[in-house]
Amino acid sequence: MTNEILQKIEAILASNAMIGQENAIELLKNEFLESLISQEKTDTEEESTKVIVEQKEAFQKLIQHFQAKLGIEKAAAEKKKDQILSAKQGLVAKLQDLIQNEQEIGKAIQIKKELQTEWGAIEDHSSAEVRQANQLFHKLLEDFNYNLNLYKAIKDHDFKRNQQIKEEILTQLGELLNKESSIGDGFRVLQKQWFETGPVKREMQDDFWQKFKDASQKVIDKLAEKKEASKTKEKENLQKKEAIISYLTTLLEEPCAKERQWKAKTDLIIEKQKEWKQIGFVPKANSNVLWETYKELCDRFFKEKSLFYEGLKEEQKKNKNEKLSLCDKAEAIIANVTDSYEDKTRMLTQLQRNWKNLGQAHPRDEQKLWKKFQDTCNLFFVDLRKTKDQEKVNFEQSLSGKKTLLDQLATTTAEADVLAVLKQWFLLDGQVRNLSSEMNKSFNESIHAKLSASGKSASEITNTVFNVRLEAYAEINSTDLLQRELNHSKEQVTKLEEEKAKFENNLGFFKHTKKDNPMLIDLLEKVAKMTQDIDVHKKRLSQIRKLLK
Fold first, then answer.
1. Distances from the Cα of 164 to the Cαs of 151, 214, 473, in angstroms?
2. With left for phi above 0 and alpha for psi between -120 and 50, is residue 182 left, alpha or beta?
3. Quick check: 170 and 209 in contact, CB under 8 A?
4. Looking at residue 466, what is its pLDDT?
């Protein structure tokens, strides 16, 4: 029995497939031990004991040999499993990378097929790791097929959208043929859109490409026609622009001295600039030279204009200051209480003439300055008009009063009464000054006659009339009348001193003339009389100045 068991173990060892025989070896091992125990109980002879020992040793060697071969087979199987797992994991990684990164669908499908072929060529293994790799690989294949179907759906949508875009481009290419401008730019844009648009379905590609070529050729032919026509138009534009340059050259030679001339010329220049912009292109060979000539003329004009306005600005600033000065002078004249209305009128009228002779200030200042000056002058002249109107009324009243005084004087004899009438006459001077020479002459003759009758000399009468006049003017506080008297006396002093100087100069001709020479005597008397009159007027000046203080 034990020998049979040993033979079975040897048969297993001879099979070279230890893995999977572990249970069979274990059963044989148990059977061998049971048989050995039974044999030891029945066989007591020494020879039998020796056989049992030999069988034990043989059994142990076979078991050791089995375990050694089993260990070698298990190590080889583990190594093979690792190789299978590594190969399958490598294919799994490649499939994952393919799904995540490959953009070309055709190439992706081909690689997927190659990976499946490689996978099929790998020996399978029952280990949990290999089974897990198998599951992952098949799951990735499902993902790939899902993405492929999704891609096909998207691709089909893209084909339809690309077809729609290209049909629109073909329509727009046809519309370009009906346009007269911007054809080239539009054509370039449509070409760019066409080539940037993706493909249509394969069976439609040739048809769409032919349509695009035909439509593009028509546009190219249209552009060629327009280019030929544009050459003629460019020659016409060249003539027009040369005419503008000739016009500007002549225009710039005309001198400008006034702002309105510069403004008028500026309007003409701007009008020609508008014409230039509207004309269009000229032949390329003439373009740069023509433009530089045109630009130089325009730059020259505006530079000269700028220089003019720089000078004008300074002149306007000067005019502004001078007009401000005239405004201040006008205000000062009106505020001066010592000058008469006549003097103020004369001075303001002169300021107005000065204003007219001045140039313009800057437009933003001119109206303000003119309004200020005009308002100042108007303030005076309105007041003057009111004064004149009142003087007219006073004149009528005073004229009637002076007529009454003239009639009253005819019947007056007493000196005191005559002087009283004389004072009343002068009191009315504050209201009326310009009487007819006939009335003044009649009154003066009557006064001189009345006072002569009372025994007064001509000089006394003159002094008396002067004193009464000053008294009357002082009583009515008429600064104007007193100032007029002052001015009259000043003029008389000046006039008499000039005449006296001439006469005294003439006395030099009589150095060797006898003193009883009638001409010399007459000349000396005249000088003495002038001296006396000068003293009289100087005394009068002193009197008047006291009253004016």
1. 20, 18, 112
2. left
3. no
4. 87
Residue 177 to residues 35, 100, 221, 399, Cα–Cα distance (Å):
111, 47, 10, 101
Least confidently predicted of 150-159, 226-235, 295-304: 150-159
Give just the sign of the alpha carbon dihedral 384, 385, 388, 394. Answer: negative
**385, 341 in Cβ contact below 8 A?**
no
* pLDDT tops 80 at residue 121: yes
Nearest CA among 275, 209, 207 for reference residue 241:
275
C-beta atoms surrounding 18 within 10 Å: 20
Interacting residues of 327 by C-beta distance below 8 A, sequence separation 6+: 369, 372, 373, 376
- Rounded to whole angstroms, the Cα distance separating 403 from 421 reads 12
CB atoms within 10 A of CB 124: 11
- Give me 297's structure tokens: 């003329």
* pLDDT bracket for residue 52 (50, 70, 90): confident
- Within 10 angstroms of residue 241's Cβ, the number of other Cβ atoms is 22
**452 pLDDT higher than 70:** yes
CA pair distance 237, 509, nearest whole angstrom: 94
Instruction: Record the tokens describing residue 302, joined without a space.
Output: 């505006």
For residue 474, give the nearest of 531, 526, 380, 544 by alpha carbon. 544
Q: Which of 377, 375, 372 is nearest to 351 (CA)?
A: 377
